[in-house]
Design a protein that fits this description.
mainly alpha
């Protein structure tokens, strides 16, 4: 937006760099969201046709409400 609407100086190839960084950022965000609500993530993956099962002997992790509701 800053480059297109406000004509901020940019280097050639900025769009590719932005796309790559956006992809990386969204991957990090997805991983964090899965850690914060793994049961919901598993439910959605099952809805999409994936087989997702808890295999650890420990109790299945629960939703981290504080992470999802703070800020």
């Amino acid at each position: 937006m800053a480059i297109r609407e406000f004509h901020v100086d940019s280097a050639p190839g900025w769009e590719q760099v932005l796309r790559k960084q956006r992809f990386t950022f969204r991957g990090h965000q997805l991983a964090a969201a899965v850690r914060d609500n793994p049961r919901r993530a598993a439910k959605e993956l099952r809805r999409l046709g994936y087989a997702v099962n808890w295999t650890h002997e420990d109790e299945e992790p629960t939703c981290r409400w504080d992470r999802l509701t703070d800020y």
